[in-house]
Structures are given as C-alpha cells and as structure tokens.
From TrEMBL:
This is Sigma 54-interacting transcriptional regulator. GO terms for biological process: phosphorelay signal transduction system; regulation of DNA-templated transcription. Pfam families: AAA_lid_14 (PF25601), Response_reg (PF00072), Sigma54_activat (PF00158). Keywords: ATP-binding, Nucleotide-binding, Phosphoprotein. GO terms for molecular function: ATP binding. SMART domains: AAA, REC. Residues 129-358 form the Sigma-54 factor interaction domain. Residues 2-116 form the Response regulatory domain. The keyword Phosphoprotein applies. It comes from Opacimonas viscosa.
C-alpha cells in the first residue's frame, strides 16, 4: 500500500516510516497537515495515517478536508489521548480506523490489511495488473462489477496495453472462474482455418480433416472465450460469429446439425471499430453485440506513476526466473524508465526489463544498461497485426504507383473487386488521386497528336 503518514512528532515519523517500509509499504511522511493536503492533491495514496492532535489542523479536521476532494480515501486516526468519545466521533464521521499510541505495530498491520482488502477487493482476481493510476483503478472497479454479470465486453486500447491480461482478470472475477478461459488471436490464423478453429469441424469436412475437431467455442463451454484482435476477423466469419452469439449455438464445418453452447465472449482490438464499420470492414450488428460494455485501457505514457511499480515488479519476477542477484534500478535508471516514450506500452517495458536482467552483471541496474536495452527493444519485431497493417499499407501504395492511381486496375492486380479496394484505401487513408501522374498541357497535345 502507499501510505501518507502525518504527525507533528518527527521522531515518531521516522520510526513508523522504517517499520511500515519494512512491512512492504510505500510511505510518504510529513509533519505538517497543510503539506499533507498538497500531497493528496498531487498524488495517489491508498490510505492516510494521521495523528489526532496537531497544531493548525487536527486529525479530524484533516479528514474532513480530505473528504471534500477525495471522498473515498481511507483515513486512520492515531492519538496518545484516545478516548471512547474520540473513537465514536471519528467513526461516525467516516474514519475507517482509530488506533492509540504507543502504536501496537501488529494491531496496525491487521488494520491496514483489513482496509487494503476492503479497498481492493479485486486484488486476488487482478493480481497481475499492477497500478495506482486513478484511471486504471476506476477501470478495475468497473471491470469487477461487470465481471459478475454475463454480458459481452469489448476491451480497446493500443497494442501492448494488456488487453488479454484484463480479459483473464474479468474471467477470474466472474462466476465462470472455475471453468476454462480460452484465448485466440483472430488476426494470427488464416481465414480458411479460422472458422474451423472457432466452430470445429467433422471428419473429412475438408482436405486434411482426418479427425473431427470440437473447436474453441466447445472447448470454452461454460467458461470464457477471448477473441483478441476481433477487428481482423474476415467479414464472412463475422456473420457466423454473430449468429453463434445470438442463438448460443454453433455449427461445425461439415456438420448438419447445430450444437448448444454456453460461453461468455470477451473481445479486444487495437483498431477503431467505429471507423471500420463506416468503411464496411466490420459489421455494425456484430459490433453492438460485442460492445455491450466497453473498457478502454490507457497507454503507458498516461500511467507514468505506474512505471516504477511495474518496473520493480517485473524486475522481481525476472530475477526469480533467471536466479540472478539484482536488487534494484539506479535512481537515474528509474528516471529514464519513467520519462521514456513507451510506444510499445507495457509489452515494451517487459522486454526492456528482461534485457536489463539478462545483461546486468551488478546488483543495481545502471542507467547505461537501461539506455542500451531501450535501443535494442525499439528495434524489435512488431506484432503480427501491426506487421500486417504495415505490409498492407506499403502494398497498396506500390499498387497505386504501378497503376497511376487507377482503382479498377489496382483492384484487378490485387485480385479484389473495386468496392473492396475502395474500402482498403479508406482504411489506410490513401487517396488514389495522389498517385495519378499529371501530364502538362503541351505533353497532352503530343499524346493526342500521336
């Protein structure tokens, strides 16, 4: 937990800070309540631990000031002059804890654990999501609420923001948590195989189908199916997916009869599906079927306060994985991590930490090694979806150059119809007119006279 500790006794502040940090908490201590209020406005805290008797502003008045702007921030009051009257007054006003000095550290630990559990009921189901960012915390609270309801959820956000991690957390918080969580990347499987992968097939349904296959919908029956990169799903399959979601039935490739299913579908995409709908690339009816609730993951650059937490947790895991003796990042190395522009989001941070651990031969990771790792990771391969988009964009540009911006000729060369070609050009914001060669008037006369 991140604790704001407020007491005008500086010696007690030092002692409590040491004890709380030894228990694994992150502590910011101040001996002035006005400064405490400034800290609360500027940062995030899980709990405030405040003395009752202080000059200018006492603990109860500080609590009232906190509640004006941070109504949900828990406050524990401590006092050497504790009375039953103080305790009753504090708890009636909404203070979550009241503890007497000298502080019994075991009692305080129990109180903090209790508050932590009440604060973050999602900790067990979302243990792999490390955050203290207010947007992320609000997102997790929303995710926890909708996890209890059997509705479809569309998770959006840039590549590398952790969409599958959030989907798995929702599954863990749902009544289906004891059943399977099955994930598939719709952009990573060829169109001719994706239908069979999802809905299954009968023996002999097509060349190579030497055995029957249940398909992922049946594998995930009673559980959760996560459709990653749903925006890459071929248009023909979108119709069949919509029917399966509406009827809760599937029809394996080659089968005559349908099969009942009971599956919760979560989906994700880095694409803007509203633009995809306008261009005809994504079905509107399927979009609204999948997007009953939308959860949008912010990019890592908007979660700068999370980077130290993430870096330390990733370092801890990597150190255990590789069994090496590395304890921390140097201060300037951590500063570099916090100020870096993370184009690849959390995935890029994971790769950077892994590289640092692999190359480090000291107990503390220095700034120079972080710089080197960032240069290396920035050169890594893109995701399959990113690579496909980049290839498609490059291919279309070359095609338009070859055909002087003639869409009909470009469509013929690509083996697509003219309507599909216009949709692709709109998707990549390409204007065929930009590729048409302008012939000067005197050259046009030569051409006409020839």
């Amino acid at each position: 937990m991140k604790i704001l500790l407020v007491d005008d006794d500086t010696s007690l502040l030092r002692l409590m800070t040491i004890r709380l940090e030894q228990s694994g908490h992150e502590v910011l201590a101040t001996n002035h309540p006005v400064q405490a209020l400034q800290h609360i406005q500027q940062g995030y805290f899980d709990v405030v631990l405040s003395d009752l008797r202080m000059p200018e502003i006492d603990g109860l008045r500080l609590f009232e000031r906190i509640r004006e702007t941070k109504a949900n921030l828990p406050v524990i009051i401590m006092t050497a002059n504790g009375t039953i009257k103080n305790a009753i007054e504090a708890t009636q006003k909404g203070v979550l804890g009241f503890i007497e000095k000298p502080i019994n550290h075991e009692e305080l630990t129990q109180l903090l654990n209790k508050i932590s559990h009440n604060l973050h009921p999602y900790q067990s189901w979302s243990e792999h999501i490390v955050t203290r960012n207010m947007t992320m915390l609000a997102l997790l609270e929303k995710a926890h609420r909708i996890a209890q309801k059997d509705v479809s959820v569309l998770i959006t956000g840039a590549s590398g923001t952790g969409k599958e991690v959030l989907a798995k957390a929702i599954h863990e918080a749902s009544p289906r948590s004891q059943e399977k969580f099955i994930a598939i990347n719709c952009g990573a499987i060829p169109e001719n195989l994706l239908e069979s992968e999802l809905f299954g097939h009968t023996k002999g349904a097509f060349t190579g189908a030497v055995n029957a296959s249940r398909g992922l919908f049946l594998e995930a029956d009673k559980g959760t199916l996560f459709l990653d990169e749903i925006g890459d799903m071929p248009h023909t399959l979108q119709v069949k997916l919509l029917r399966a979601l509406q009827e809760q039935k599937i029809k394996p490739v080659g089968a005559q009869n349908t099969i009942d299913i009971d599956v919760r579908v979560l989906s994700a995409t880095h694409r803007n599906l509203e633009i995809e709908m306008q261009s005809g690339q994504f079905r509107e009816d399927l979009y609204y079927r999948l997007n009953v609730v939308n959860l949008h993951l912010p990019p890592l650059k908007d979660r700068a306060e999370d980077i130290p937490l993430l870096a330390r947790e990733l370092l801890r895991k990597s150190v255990l994985k590789h069994n090496v003796d590395i304890s921390s990042f140097a201060d300037d190395a951590m500063e570099l991590l916090v100020t870096h522009t993370w184009q690849g989001n959390v995935r890029q941070l994971v790769n950077t930490i892994e590289q640092c651990v692999a190359l480090c031969d000291t107990k503390v990771i220095p700034k120079q090694l972080v710089e080197q790792s960032l240069r290396q990771v920035d050169k890594t391969w893109p995701t399959l979806s990113e690579a496909k988009d980049a290839f498609e964009f490059s291919y279309l540009k070359k095609l338009l150059h070859m055909t002087d911006g003639n869409v009909t000729r470009a469509a013929n060369l690509a083996g697509r119809n003219r309507s599909d070609m216009h949709k692709l050009l709109k998707k990549h914001e390409l204007d065929a007119a930009d590729f048409r060669q302008v012939i000067p008037l005197h050259d046009q006369a030569k051409v006409l006279g020839s």
